[in-house]
Amino acid sequence: MLIFKGAGLAGLNGLRVLKSMPHCDGSMAPRCLMTPSLSSLLPKLIRNHHASTTHGVEIANANVFEDVQKSLDSKELAILMSLNSRYPDWTVTMTPSSTGLIPFANAGEATATLDTESQKNLSWLKYEPPKNAIGDQGRFREQLEFGRYDYLWKKKSFIVYHLRSQRNYDSTMDTYFILHPREGDEIANGRSVTIKNLITAASDHSNDLHEGDVLVFDDDEWEKDTKFWKSIQQSRWDNVILDKGLKDSLIRDVEGFFDNRENYRQLEIP
Predict the structure, then answer these.
(1) Is residue 176 within a helix (H) or strand (E), and if so which, with residue range?
(2) Of 83, 172, 175, 192, which sits with the fewest C-beta atoms within 10 Å of its C-beta?
(3) Global pTM?
């Protein structure tokens, strides 16, 4: 009768294997370890040990994220952890506002419907007075701080959560969380391929200039600003009051910039 005890067998702590080996002496012990009955037990024992270890790592990883959340006080991390917990069968991907998910939908390339029925959206309701006293009316405007969209692109359904958070005292940052079911999706390097394709399409559309678009460099990234484009359409050089020499120099710089459009295109400068 041989008894194996402790961590010596396949690294399995506390394992005890009892096996009758009448033809085994001390010199043959290593060979006798792999008798058919015992060898058939090893895969199951190792799988159980691996499953236990994996579960322990998952718990440790979750605890680390909780610790990081407490130390960083990050809304993004808190929402990411909540979504991963509440949507276990979905992949969750964070992407910045520069991806242009909502403008992509507004352009007719996708459909984004703000869920106002089942979700309690967090938003400001602001009244904007008339811009002039004659023939103009004031209006209400919603400023979404946190909400959910039902998103449809190429017959594929997504859930998109939008978060607006304070970046510093005078600017905000918009973050989008894209969810897509794992079933039927391809997962590569932990990422949903379907979500990556959506991000690629929206980003390409966002970077392409269309009629009424202008790119503005702000907060270390280029962003479209259609409102700014519309606001300058009625502007004329006659409205600019400057010293004549300075004004003429400024006009030459601006017109020279647009005259060299092809050079900027070749250098891939937006």
Answers:
(1) strand 171-181
(2) 172
(3) 0.57
